[in-house]
Amino acid sequence: MREAIEASGLNDDEALLDQPADVEIVDESIVFTGRVWNIRHETFRYNAEILGRDFVAHTGAVAVLVLDDSDRILAIRQYRHAVRLCEWEIPAGLLDVEGEDPLAAAKRELAEEVDLEADDWSVLSDYSTTPGGSNEIVRIYVARGLRKIEHAYVRTGEEADIEMRWVNLDDAYEAALNRQITNSVILIAVLSAYASRSRGWSTLIPGDSPWPMRRWRDATSQ
């Protein structure tokens, strides 16, 4: 196998690392304006070709894996109309407030969705949801040192009947492996947290750490 890899010119010892690409945008336009997101068409130069692509121009989002002292996570079940499912998820929300810091947005979502505050915030994962058709990126935080807040937020629409459940991380991990949960955010959060715990949570970084992926996306979307 190693000989085949070397013959192909590939290096199996190189670490996997996404790299930003600076391409020339030839033309761009909004082809559909939606209630929450728009569809953007961009024409760009890549490998000496002029290509055109449509994609969802997304605000980006943050999510919170709430973890208590017993290694339980707080899961919420919410109706999602596009897939006609009442999905188990974790608290999350859009970065749709102009200039709002992602960590501040995560704290806001935690309070609004599950009436909690947290003293300890760490970054668990950054990822692109559907890079073939959307520029959405998500930062997932771990929140610990929890306390209830006195003011309960009034929830409407699909959030009006949110169900909340504390689930042991081990049980959530099994639910992910057994395809019982399908939401990408909770899947990535649970699998990443399970792996991080096996390393003594050494993969976590401070909650206010820079978010290079978002900085690059915003700089190239102007």
TrEMBL record:
Every Nudix hydrolase domain range: 57-189
Keyword Hydrolase: yes
GO biological process, one term: ribose phosphate metabolic process
One function term, GO molecular function aspect: ADP-ribose diphosphatase activity
GO terms for cellular component: cytosol
Pfam families: NUDIX
Domain of life: Bacteria
Keyword list, A-Z: Hydrolase
SUPFAM superfamilies, per database record: Nudix
Keyword Hydrolase set for record: yes
EC id: 3.6.1.13
InterPro entries named among the record's database cross-references: NUDIX_hydrolase-like_dom_sf, NUDIX_hydrolase_dom
Protein name per its UniProtKB record: ADP-ribose pyrophosphatase
Organism: Alpinimonas psychrophila
